[in-house]
């Protein structure tokens, strides 16, 4: 498959995303494409992973996944995949933006026996002026329920309470309590091979434990509006993100650094 070949979204799909702030799309990639890029990503994760603590010695966050950032800067083949126009166009169309820029990528490999990923909203961590952000969650294999697929609280971007919580045992407990008393649909579904989900920065999501003995291999790419402005950080995590993911960007200006390239524009 040509990974720059456009994936055309229907108006119905764009409307669904705007209402729920997540969508799952089938057949974004074929098996051959995923096998090729997935092997490169897995090799690089193995090479760069420095987690040497056994699972039962880690905290909740440590048990949730092996996490390796910005693989696109480590390998030319992975760069091709992360900066592909196919993914970038979907992101721009869902954000209703004129183009998509990379915030950063992130491999999230949940080991066999790995724990839950607690409820959280990603944008708590990001010093970004608007919510025109979208994360592509790209399984590198089919993910049955027992492997811990991503779960969404559809439409929960409307909730402000809980946004101030970092990903933790507290966020799992307090956000779960809040969501229980709302009407937002809790979506828990397996992922077919080639199926990719996209979610916005303020929608609440989590993932279950990996109850299998296989690694759950997922690549994620976080996109922002190509014209995204850096805002004054509101917490320490946002300050750190500014330094690491937007180095040299200035508050009040478009985040246009060498590690935030535009991957698609209309």
Tell me the layout of helices and strands:
Layout: H1 11-20, E1 22-25, H2 31-48, H3 60-64, E2 66-69, H4 76-82, H5 85-95, E3 99-110, E4 117-120, E5 133-139, E6 150-153, H6 169-180, E7 186-188, E8 196-199, E9 205-207, E10 216-225, H7 236-245, E11 262-265
Antiparallel strand pairs: 1-8, 2-3, 3-10, 3-11, 4-9, 5-8, 5-10, 6-7, 6-9
Question: Which structural class fits the helix and strand makeup?
Answer: alpha+beta
End-to-end CA span: 22 Å
Listing every helix as H and every strand as E from the N terminus to the C terminus, the arrangement reads HEHHEHHEEEEHEEEEHE
Question: What is the percentage of strand-forming residues?
Answer: 15-25%
What's the story with the biggest beta sheet? 7 strands, antiparallel
Shape verdict: globular
Number of domain units? 1
Please, what is the CATH homologous superfamily?
q2cbj1_9rhob like domain
Q: Look up the CATH topology.
A: Jelly Rolls
Strand tally is: 11
User: Which percent bin holds the helix content?
Assistant: 25-40%
CATH class descriptor name: Mainly Beta
Question: Total number of helical segments?
Answer: 7
Query: What's the Cα radius of gyration?
Result: 17 Å
Second-tier CATH architecture = Sandwich
Mean pLDDT: 94
Low-confidence stretches: none
GO molecular function: 2-oxoglutarate-dependent dioxygenase activity; iron ion binding
Pfam families: PhyH (PF05721)
Protein name: Phytanoyl-CoA dioxygenase
Cofactor: Fe(2+)
């Amino acid at each position: 498959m040509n990974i720059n070949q456009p994936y055309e979204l229907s108006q119905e799909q764009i409307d669904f995303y705007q209402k729920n702030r997540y969508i799952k799309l089938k057949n974004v990639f074929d098996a051959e494409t995923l096998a090729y890029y997935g092997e490169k990503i897995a090799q690089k994760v193995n090479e760069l992973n420095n987690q040497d603590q056994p699972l039962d010695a880690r905290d909740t966050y440590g048990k949730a996944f092996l996490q390796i950032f910005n693989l696109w800067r480590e390998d030319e083949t992975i760069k091709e995949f992360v900066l592909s126009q196919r993914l970038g166009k979907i992101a721009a169309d869902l954000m209703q933006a004129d183009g998509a820029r990379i915030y950063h990528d992130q491999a999230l490999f949940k080991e066999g026996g790995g724990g839950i990923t607690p409820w959280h909203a990603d944008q708590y961590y990001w010093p970004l002026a608007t919510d025109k952000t979208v994360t592509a969650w790209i399984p590198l294999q089919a993910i049955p329920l027992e492997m811990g697929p991503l779960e969404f609280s559809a439409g929960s971007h409307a909730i402000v309470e809980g946004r101030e919580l970092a990903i933790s045992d507290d966020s799992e407990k307090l956000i779960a309590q809040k969501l229980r008393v709302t009407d937002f649909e809790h979506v828990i579904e397996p992922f077919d091979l080639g199926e990719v989900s996209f979610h916005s920065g303020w929608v609440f999501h989590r993932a279950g434990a990996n109850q299998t003995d296989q690694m759950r291999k997922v690549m994620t790419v976080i996109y922002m509006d190509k014209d995204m402005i850096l805002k004054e950080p509101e917490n320490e995590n946002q300050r750190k993100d500014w330094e690491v993911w937007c180095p040299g960007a200035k508050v009040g200006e478009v985040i246009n650094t060498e590690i935030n390239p535009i991957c698609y524009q209309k």
